[in-house]
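Thought: the user asked what Exopolygalacturonase clone GBGE184-like looks like in 3D. I have the sequence; next I should run the structure tool and report back without guessing.
Action: structure_tool
Action Input:
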Amino acid sequence: MSMGNMAIARRSSAKAIILLGLALLSCVADGVSRGHLFKASARRSVADTRKVFDVTAFGAKTEDQMKGGKSTAAGVVKLDLPSLPGDEKVDDEKVDDEKMDSSEEEAGPGEAGPGEGPSDDNASAFIKTWVAACRGNYSGPTKVLIPKGTFMTGPVIFQGPCTSSKEPILVEVEGYVKASTDLSLYASPEWFTFEMVDGLIVTGEGTFDGQGESTWKSNGCRDKSSCAQAPSSLKFNKVNNTLVERITSLNSKFFHTHIYGCGNLTMNNVHITAPGDSPNTDGVHISSSTNVKVLNSVIGTGDDCVSIGQGTHDILVNNITCGPGHGISVGSLGKRKDDKSVSQIHVSNCTFRNTTNGARIKTWAAESAGEASDITYENIVMDQVQNPIVIDQNYGKKKTKPGTGPAGGAQSKWKISNVHFKNIRGTSSRNIAVSLQCSSSNPCDGIEMADINFSYMGAAIKDTALTTECYNAKIAPKGVQIPPLCR
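Observation:
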């Protein structure tokens, strides 16, 4: 072969190797963008190249524009977020969440036409913007922008799958978005719904205001089991590879955030707040989902700061400040006969302030049977918490007096095992700092209590001695045990 032919062959071989390498990198990049992009606070280089779809370009109007004034796009409402008060209530029986866990089966296509009122018009504009960015004529990375300004809107559905790009679609919220208080607009119990999307980022310095104070006392759900359920503020329904960061959720009508049927979803650095007496305003409710992380956030509500429901696996809750509220709970489980087991739950490095509960696991004594296993609460600080450590397998029953044992009658069929309470310390505002009330027909197995250290800081003057109560629990104590652990 001549020297010239050899040089051509080398160049052809090198070109083939480069093309093969680029093809492999393209495949890897696609996997990264879909499945591994969402590390907390990771910067996304694709953000600068996204085509922006602004909701105002599709007809959305601020409240000032609705009134005939100038746009408020130059400034956003500034929140005077409440402090973390200590006036909390005990749990009320929640509305059955069966409707929530099945409502996505009946959800509409997310392309509704304009309504009759201003909030319906904005909802239509938001949806049209999403459709254009998600599966419109443009091909490439996209961003839906809710700019600065105050927008009133009814229910909104952002539905996939998205076809504009293999990159995650980004929703940037810089404005102050208020939920309509007209409950007749909500065909299903959600306000903003993201569903069937693979690759989603929701970010920004904006606020979702559910205006729940208008419905907390008037919707009647505390008294009527058949009443219409108030809508959750943000519903993530069957979305995968999702990052939610920096946003604020204020005064939801029901749950602030409901995560259902999701995989690989991270919430990071969010602020969730509602008064301590607001009913059923869970900060983050997770069900039927795998690999969910709730990180580095401040949550204060009238119910659980984080509630980990049926069918969940591989859940991490880390560095959360919780209060007011009812703690971080696994459950309740077993109210419905089709509730699925939960496993691999890890709650760590959290602080509870003036909450009714701290680390809690709760199951119903009903027909349902299942397992709650491999659960860890560790490195937790309790600041004047009423019930710092709780296992309650009689949830929903009329409570007996403290220290008298579980209520009689039917026992929970749920098996709780391999639970670790480690390095939990602080102050209890009631005398019983640790309450383990397990099922007599299915006792708790493998309950590790390691380095538990509480002091009393309550209102009682006569009896300031802390104690524990344990029923039907097989406990393995390690290290410090203050108050002394019952056997």
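Thought: the tool returned a structure. Summarizing for the user.
Final Answer: Structure for Exopolygalacturonase clone GBGE184-like predicted. Residues 304-486 form a domain with the Pectate Lyase C-like fold (CATH 2.160.20.10). The CA atoms of residues 240 and 263 lie 5 Å apart.
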